[in-house]
Design a protein that fits this description.
Strand 3 and strand 4 form a beta hairpin. Helix 1 crosses helix 4. By secondary structure, the protein is of the alpha/beta class. It has a two-stranded parallel sheet. The longest helix has 21 residues.
């Protein structure tokens, strides 16, 4: 069983809600088209992802060897996520957890405190190197460099029970990093995370993209902030 391979009927969540606890997300309606912004954003995704894949080719080989030497299981893991307008796609990362990480069912990551993470995996997560394979998805257009982080359908279904409108974040293409990621990441509860995602979707400006990129670089090099 590969990392985080889900038992679709079992979902282990770290968030608990009272029966009468509900949050309501703003209905964004039809998202306004921004042709120039979209062109620049897509061009940036193509250039950065292609350069990243070329520059990181040798480091990826080293990472793959380290993963194989550190724990049993595949180098990569692929997992189904929801993308733009709820379209399903396979997200691929370097494996950072034990191969049997979800033997008891689909489980939301507990960040750095998650005891399923391997020693090499902890380093990869801390440096964000586990995300490198996703550059290919950015190159082909499934992902963007910046956008709401993609989640699994089962988690959307669970969140919607109490965070009504969590799926509003599906109205734009998901990203490798995002406003929520640089403002809390795994530490944010769903009702907190979606607020940042809605803010990003409503704003969608090149200036905001630049700010998120800058904050992402700070997080990567300081290992502070989002996880």
């Amino acid at each position: 069983m590969s990392e985080e391979t889900a038992n679709e009927k079992s979902v282990i969540m770290p968030f608990s809600y009272r029966d009468d606890e509900h949050y309501y997300v703003e209905d964004l309606g039809v998202i306004k088209k921004k042709p120039f912004y979209s062109f620049v954003k897509r061009s940036f995704d193509i250039v950065v992802s292609l350069l990243g894949l070329i520059v990181m080719a040798l480091p990826m080989l080293v990472i793959a060897i380290a993963i194989k030497l550190n724990s049993k299981g595949p180098v990569f893991y692929s997992q189904e996520r929801l993308g733009l307008n709820g379209k399903k796609f396979m997200l691929t990362k370097f494996r950072t957890m034990r191969a049997d990480a979800e033997k008891n069912g689909a489980q939301w990551s507990d960040g750095d405190k998650d005891d399923r993470i391997t020693k090499v995996g902890a380093f990869l997560r801390k440096t964000r190197l586990d995300e490198i394979p996703q550059l290919w998805a950015c190159f082909v257009g499934t992902l963007s460099i910046i956008g709401p982080r993609p989640e699994r359908e089962m988690f959307y279904n669970e969140f919607e029970k109490h965070v009504h409108g969590f799926s509003e974040r599906l109205k734009v293409k998901p990203g490798l990093t995002g406003l929520a990621q640089v403002n809390g990441g795994y530490d944010l509860r769903p009702e907190e995370k979606v607020k940042f995602d809605v803010e990003y979707i409503k704003t969608r400006s090149l200036w905001l993209e630049i700010k998120i990129l800058f904050k992402t670089v700070v997080v990567v090099f300081t290992h502070d902030g989002a996880k």
